Amino acid sequence: RSQKIGGTISHNTIYQNGLFKPDTTNGNDMTFEFTSGIKCYGVNTTAITIDSNYVYDNGVSINNASQGIWADTANTGFVIKNNLVVNNYGNGIVLEKTSNASVYNNVMINNGIAQYTANLMLEAADESGRSVSNNLIYNNSMYGGWWSLSLNNLAGNTMSNNQIKNNISYSPTGNALYVGSPAANDGVNST
Fold first, then answer.
1. The whole model's pTM is what?
2. What does the H/E/C string look like for 146-178?
3. Taking a C-beta distance cutoff of 8 angstroms, is the pair 79, 114 a contact?
4. Is the pLDDT of residue 183 over 70?
């Protein structure tokens, strides 16, 4: 039987995180290396609360687009609430291959500075058989960034029953809501 990891991350100020890596394939001096201010990764992370943190200025360039808060790969039961997430080059808050999470009462300002990133992203990325389902996204305020809210399904995984309601979006560079194909949600309560 595997051990589950849970806990609370609260009342922290987290800023200017980012890992540089030489990138000779694209001709860039440096490249993004999967970094963020707060990142919870792995199939055994469950019941984690991320509350009342100030997460800002992570990632230092378009080529180092660190996320603000990132729940990554088969996490379940997350609560991300009451955080101030500002000026992160990558996504502000990401639920990647994560289910049964609640994201609410967060303020996200100018995250997603890099193209095709968002203040808040739900993503079923590169592995088949991963689900982004039964997440509740509500009462968040989003200003600026490339997209305000993005639903992305890059590998044909399950993306269903996500409820998105009562969020405020103002002045993104791209779209307030971006739904990438084939990221169809079943439409239940997606207002």
1. 0.86
2. CEEEEEEECCCCEEECCEEECCEEECCCCCCEE
3. no
4. no
